[in-house]
Design brief:
The chain is α/β, with parallel strands linked by helices and 185 residues long. The protein has six helices and nine strands, in the order E-E-E-H-E-E-H-E-H-E-E-H-H-E-H. The radius of gyration is 15 Å and the shape is globular.
Length: 185
C-alpha cells in the first residue's frame, strides 16, 4: 500500500494568543519542527503539511504544502484529497503541535494498520492521533465536519487497533503556559 503522511499544521492557535504556536520556541526549536523532524525519518511515498500560515511552511521544506484556512476537519480533508489525487491508499495523520511523537510510535501505527482499517494511539485515558487510515475509510473522513477532526472515527476502536504510549507522547502544546512548562522541564 502507498502511504502518505499528513501533518495538520493549520490550526488557529486560539488558546495560544496572537502568535502562531507552531513557530514558538520549545527548547530552541520551533514547536512544529519536532514533528517535522520525526516524520522526515519515516519511509512514505508522500509527505504533506497542511498549513494556514505561510511563515510555518518553511519548517516543512521537504513536504508537499497544502494551504487551508478552515477548521480541523477541513484541513484533514484537504490533506486527504491531495493524497488521493496522488493515488495514495493509506494515510498517517498527526498534529504539528505534538512534539513528543517518536519514530517507534509511528512505525507501530503503520504496522497495526496492515491488519486494521484504522490504527490510533492511546495513553490509557484517551484514544488520539497520530492515526493511520486505510482507503476503506477515506469516505468517512471526507464526510467529517467541524473542529473535531477524525476523533469520532478513532474513539470506538478495538484494543487490537491501538498502540499504547506514554502520556507525554500524546501531549500537545495548546497554550503558552504548557509551552513554558515544557521549556522549564
Amino acid at each position: 500500500m502507498k502511504l502518505a503522511i499528513i501533518i495538520l499544521a493549520a490550526g488557529h492557535s486560539k488558546r495560544f494568543g496572537t502568535n502562531d504556536k507552531l513557530l514558538a520556541q520549545l527548547k530552541g526549536q520551533a514547536l512544529a519542527q519536532y514533528t517535522a523532524n520525526t516524520i522526515r525519518k519515516i519511509k512514505s511515498e508522500l509527505k504533506i503539511a497542511v498549513v494556514s500560515n505561510p511563515e510555518v511552511a518553511p519548517i516543512f521544506d521537504e513536504f508537499d504544502i497544502v494551504y487551508n484556512q478552515g477548521d480541523q476537519s477541513s484541513s484533514l480533508k484537504a490533506g486527504l484529497n491531495y493524497a488521493m489525487d496522488n493515488q495514495i491508499d493509506k494515510v498517517l495523520v498527526c498534529l504539528a503541535d505534538m512534539p513528543f511523537i517518536d519514530e517507534k510510535t509511528i512505525e507501530s501505527l503503520i504496522e497495526k494498520s496492515n491488519h486494521h482499517p484504522i490504527a490510533a494511539c492511546s495513553d490509557g485515558s484517551k484514544i488520539s492521533v497520530p492515526a493511520v487510515f486505510n482507503s476503506t475509510v477515506f469516505a468517512d473522513i471526507l464526510a467529517l465536519s467541524g473542529d473535531k477532526g477524525a476523533g469520532k472515527l478513532i474513539k470506538p476502536l478495538d484494543a487490537e487497533a491501538i498502540v499504547q504510549v506514554e502520556k507525554t507522547t500524546l501531549q500537545d502544546i495548546d497554550s503558552s503556559q504548557s509551552l513554558n512548562l515544557f521549556n522549564s522541564a
